């Protein structure tokens, strides 16, 4: 009886203490008139939950399990922390293929389930969200405990919105508006019946709504596109920061890059823009301070901070809670990818050059694996010529049984095989475009050099034609030069030993 009474008193005391403490905290916030809001952002997770490489069969420092550790640390530092994502969640690993294509999403779809545990505030629709079809995407969205946003994807038939355009969160009386935007660079067959509106025009429309109609004090855009204008890639973050009045920060994705810049906005203050690389290898952080002036919350621009946590440079331990939550999905994926689908009597191996540091052997000479890919493409496209990029320089199919994982390691993103008709002249232009990858040789150069500004996946290996490359000559610098018909680097272009007509 005594014990019960003592616990009862303790409980009353605890409740009183909490109420007093909470009230004191409220008075303190009211006295200072300032609120500190941290916004954390991820992008291009592409199905990476665990700190595990399904292709290299190893653990490494990336994925939700790694991100979650830092998110928890920041929330300890500042409870007023929101977590948002900039898209490309549901495609990109064997895990997302298995649950998106083979199993179809259910109420516990892996990515949104884990994000729910991590308490995400909002996500964004990326171009790869459309890869498994609109029905699958809608099922994924239905499983989420947070809104997945896009203000510029509409139905082609009537212009109505397909997704929720924005969400608003109250943080200690501050209204935070979060607007989602999607790149226009989407595979046409994936978005049949839909239209993706211009991101800058859409941002202007909805930021004005958030500011004037919703009375938001802080406006963040989470955008699945990169920094600089590019029609092909659909990048518009910089123009939005420069031209759209009322934007306070932009989280970007799509380009799989690390971007940490500020851009001068149209009303004289800088807008922070962050892109946290890919696959959960980094985490973006914005810190905003708002002061209550005459009953209105105003951003203190001189206090705004931004940074990116790079987990390769500064590793953290994975969050055990996320590892445990993702275990059943991970183990089911491993069982699927271990399925044997064939055998081989020899090794098919890629690798890096011994002569040129950082350059794969496939970009210098024929390799068995790229030859194998091109042979299959020739067969199934019923083509005369095949070209394929070396997406994984470390891919290796060993002699013996072939598993789904072996095939996945060659080309991590499932894609489409196309056959198109081209002329000899068009083929030559294509080859001239491809070999821009090589830098022009200068007197005294001992070996081949490569243009670092051109991604390796934009260089293809060909089968069915032969040609010579003269690296002493410059590459075409733009589309006009390429279309001019001038002789650049490619000569002796032949198919089956016969010179091709340039018509």
From TrEMBL:
Keyword presence, Nucleus: no
Family annotation (InterPro entries): 5'-Nucleotdase_C, 5'-Nucleotdase_C_sf, 5'-Nucleotdase_CS, 5_nucleotidase/apyrase, Calcineurin-like_PHP, Metallo-depent_PP-like
SUPFAM superfamilies assigned: 5'-nucleotidase (syn. UDP-sugar hydrolase), C-terminal domain, Metallo-dependent phosphatases
UniProt feature coiled coil, ranges: none
Swiss-Prot/TrEMBL keywords: Signal
Cellular component terms (Gene Ontology): outer membrane-bounded periplasmic space
BP term (GO), one: nucleotide catabolic process
Domain (Calcineurin-like phosphoesterase) ranges: 38-257
Keyword GTP-binding: no
Gene Ontology terms for molecular function: hydrolase activity, acting on ester bonds; metal ion binding; nucleotide binding
All copies of domain 5'-Nucleotidase C-terminal, residue ranges: 357-482
Designated name of the protein: 5'-Nucleotidase C-terminal domain-containing protein
Originating organism: marine sediment metagenome
